[in-house]
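Re: the request from the purification team.
They wanted to know what the chain is likely to look like in 3D before they choose a buffer screen. I agreed to run a prediction and write the result into the notebook, where they can find it.
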Amino acid sequence: MTITGPYHVNVNCSDLTRSLQFYTDVLGFSPVVHTAPDVQSGAAFGFAQAQWDAWILGGGDGSNDGVVLDLLEWKEPAPGRSPIGPDGESGFTHLLVSVPDPTATAAQCEAVAEEPWMTSSDHWVRDPDGTVITLVPGPHTGLVGIGIRSFDPRATLELLASHLVSPSGFRFEVEPGSNGGSTRAANDLGIFRMAWLTDDLETDHARLLGAGLAELSGPVPLAMGIDDGAGNDVSLEASFLTDANGCCFELIAPPS
């Protein structure tokens, strides 16, 4: 296995400025990298063209040593349907975010909530687009887990344990779902994908296909809209696969 570990969890939003303010000012994440590429081929995502505006957000301690958050607003095509709700639909369901004081942070979320359904008394809150977030105690703000609703929880746990590397302390909360997953579009709001870094993209892509995942896209280059300091746009190579629950797993070969 050449997968070195998870890199980010992608959350799609309808208004990057609004969501960035929520995740930084209210939850306490730190902006790390801004990616805003020009229009490019959208074949990797099932679109004719693709363009986005996004921020990679690291922990409240100013580091990006753990799993980071990829907060992204689609520009081409426009944002799609709402996040997964509580009706049993399988897929990625919620984020687990550590904060020093979950009760105080939940109160801050309630104070800025645009709708009453965006908060609850059990430290479950929603971001401005309705993505569910569970607040848990920790020394600083950080992304510490993700929820998955699966029609076969045992198979999901086996996939994560046997074929994907997870960092110490990162949690997968797997719960049973009432129905099989339909793959969500890459521009749908909420959690679309979780990305892992790999030293051998072709081999690991093939290995995950052999483990039963379906191919959304084979390895393709993607421009990131980041200047490398010499006037060149940074690009990377990535592939996309999905499991039976509709969860999208991305493999990324770091830029050389």
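For the purification team: Residues 16-26 form the longest helix (11 residues).
Please add any questions underneath this entry.
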